[in-house]
Design brief:
InterPro entries: YdjO (IPR025916)
Number of strands: 3
Region (Disordered): 52-71
Helix content: under 10%
Biased composition (Basic residues): 62-71
Protein name: Cold-shock protein
Organism: Paenibacillus arenilitoris
Order of helices and strands: HEEE
């Protein structure tokens, strides 16, 4: 499947952490990583890198709070 020009324009350089283990394919966006990151799959060390990814909106919508139950 060919990539169109519009799809290419939507990709932006993004900071990521990727697993150092060449056999492991795990990676996580920097903005979703918690400080010094351990690989979520193999628990090995991770290193900083860059990848061209589509932008994400990482602001969670606030949910209305439910009243506390008396139970």
């Amino acid at each position: 499947m060919a990539t169109t020009e519009d799809e290419k324009q939507k990709l932006i350089p993004t900071k990521i952490f990727k697993c150092k283990n060449p056999e492991c394919k795990a990676w996580v966006r920097d903005e979703f990583a918690a400080g010094e990151q351990a690989c979520p799959i193999c628990k090995g060390p991770m290193l900083r890198s860059m990848r061209h990814l589509p932008p994400v909106q990482n602001k969670a919508k606030s949910q209305p709070r439910k009243p506390k139950s008396d139970y």
